[in-house]
Specification:
With 508 residues, the chain is of the alpha+beta class. The chain has helices spanning 2-25, 31-39, 41-46, 97-103, 167-185, 190-210, 397-411, 500-507, and strands at 53-57, 65-66, 79-82, 93-94, 106-109, 111-114, 118-127, 132-135, 141-146, 154-155, 160-165, 221-225, 230-235, 242-243, 250-253, 257-265, 277-282, 285-297, 307-315, 326-332, 338-343, 348-349, 354-361, 364-369, 371-375, 379-384, 391-395, 424-436, 441-446, 457-463, 478-484, 490-497. Residues 340-400 form the CzcB-like C-terminal circularly permuted SH3-like domain.
């Protein structure tokens, strides 16, 4: 009996403390107001100038309501829900004109217009592979003299590059001279004449294969010239150096046109076509844009980056673009076809959902899921979810959306048939008051739990298993973790002994 009286006293004190706490926080009306509302609820609800109370909801968040004020099993007053703040699962929000001005809410209409869409990519300047020329002798020899002796030097078509000496070249030219004299001498012997003609043809064929002339004032040497206008990209030549057949001594590139290789993401490939115009911007000249055109889409895809190379060609006669430069590419897209669009600022895109806030009436806003198409500089295409002329919020929409999500969440408190929220866990400090092994439950004296807005009280919890309370004694300070499983079921998952000194300090 003594123990039961003590328990009843603790419960009463906890209920009184909880009511005082909730009244002070504004979640519950004062005690006198509760009695007044209970005495004349209809008059209070309908009197002019007063807020109308629709119902009272459970203070613990359980899905039960009451048309009149009452208390729950722990003595906590039910919380009134007013008509002007009643939540609904649609998330619609009503905002007063004064608050609209304070938030700076602005709206715009969804309209049909051509989209200022552009596909953006990054790339790099590369040499036009069709304008690269290698100077490679087809015979063996030595470099006698260099006429262009530095990489990066500009050259013109026909300009002398280097002069070489080759014993093979000298031998072939001598053979051709001898064969020419024998043919011109007109040998009486037909066999000798035929041999001379074959020797002459073989010598000429060898020189033609080497791409050199038959002779000249200096038959022992030959000077190689530039095959095109451009710059020397690579020079391996050194005076006196021996070279072998096929060795690339000079590499010359014509940079009057260059390529840009841009990486386009897989999902954007359908928007790229050969012949499409583009604008290229480089970091070195941020105020200047270079005109380009798509000339080729490569048939491969980089599996790591999910991009495909796209080749663009640019005029570079002024020489501003250099191979290796990093560039930003903007491909014109969107076309002249009209599309339903809204300003970019109207779209709230979290990655999991895409919504706009549609104006549902004077001061009312409702989240509207939409399907987004192409994105432009200032507008985005809306494929589904809106109609032309619908008003949407373009400023302060994130604030209204946050309140809308809160309204939709609160709607679950007033609808018993709504789906239960995912279980949440909380931590608290307290001590065991009584343990009931038969029902696998425990009565806990716990301190205030701010996360649930609970005052310090004694209440019953379920135990996740009998092992949770094994070895723990009533009255000793404990830290415990419990789970809200809905419908008023709170189950302790873990309990452990707390430092008595720390618990005492926290209690004071």
């Amino acid at each position: 009996m003594k123990r039961a009286s003590f328990f009843a006293l603790v419960v009463a004190a906890a209920a009184a403390a909880g009511g005082y706490y909730l009244a002070q926080s504004g979640l519950l009306p004062a005690v006198g107001d509760v009695h007044a509302q209970a005495a004349a609820p209809a008059a209070a609800d309908t009197s002019a100038g007063e807020r109308k109370i629709l119902y009272y909801r459970n203070p613990m968040g359980l899905p039960d309501t009451s048309p009149t004020p009452k208390k729950d099993s722990m003595g906590m007053d039910y919380i009134p829900v007013y008509a002007d703040e009643a939540p609904d699962d649609s998330g619609a929000v009503a905002v007063s004109p004064a608050r609209l001005q304070t938030l700076g809410v602005k709206t715009a209409k969804a309209q049909v217009q051509p989209l200022d869409a552009a596909l953006r990519a990054v790339g790099r300047v590369e040499i036009n592979e069709r304008a690269i020329h290698d100077v490679s002798p087809r015979f063996e020899g030595w470099i006698e003299r260099l006429h262009v002796n530095a990489s990066g030097d500009p050259v013109k078509r026909g300009q002398a590059l280097f002069t070489v000496y080759s014993p093979e070249l000298v031998s072939a030219r001598k053979e051709m001279e001898i064969a020419e004299r024998l043919v011109e001498a007109g040998q009486a012997d037909p066999v000798a004449r035929e041999s001379a003609r074959r020797l002459l043809a073989a010598a000429r064929e060898r020189l033609r294969h080497w791409q050199v002339s038959g002779g000249g004032a200096d038959a022992a040497n030959i000077t190689f010239t530039s095959p095109a206008n451009g710059v020397v990209l690579d020079k391996k030549a050194v005076e006196g150096m021996r070279f072998s057949p096929g060795m690339a001594i000079y590499r010359i590139a014509d940079l009057s046109t260059v390529w840009v290789i841009a990486d386009v993401y897989e999902q954007d490939l359908a928007r790229v076509k050969v012949g499409q115009v583009a604008q290229v911007q480089v970091e070195a000249f941020p105020a200047q844009r270079f005109a380009a055109k798509v000339t080729y889409l490569y048939p491969t895809l980089n599996a790591a980056t999910r991009t495909t190379p796209v080749r663009l060609e640019l005029d570079n006669r002024d020489g501003l673009l250099r191979p290796g430069m990093f560039v930003h590419v903007e491909l014109a897209d969107g076309g002249a076809a009209p599309r339903l669009t809204v300003p970019r600022s109207a779209l709230i895109d979290t990655g999991e959902r895409q919504v706009v806030l549609r104006v549902a009436g004077e001061g009312r806003f409702k989240p509207q899921p939409v399907t987004v198409g192409q994105r432009g500089r200032e507008h985005v295409e809306i494929v589904d979810g809106l109609a032309e002329g619908d008003d949407v919020v373009v400023a302060a929409n994130f604030l209204i959306d946050a309140e809308s999500n809160l309204k939709a969440a609160l709607a679950t408190f007033s609808a018993p048939e709504t789906a239960k929220a995912a279980a949440k866990t909380y931590e608290a400090v307290g001590s065991i008051d009584a343990l009931d092994a038969a029902s696998n439950s425990v009565s806990m004296n716990h301190e205030a739990i701010p996360a649930l807005k609970w005052p310090a009280m004694t209440m019953d919890f379920g135990l996740d298993s009998a092992e949770v309370a094994k070895g723990l004694l009533p009255g000793e300070p404990l830290r415990f973790t419990f789970e809200d499983r809905g419908d008023g079921e709170f189950v302790i998952l873990k309990m452990e002994k707390a430092d008595p000194a720390a618990a005492a300090d926290k209690g004071h």
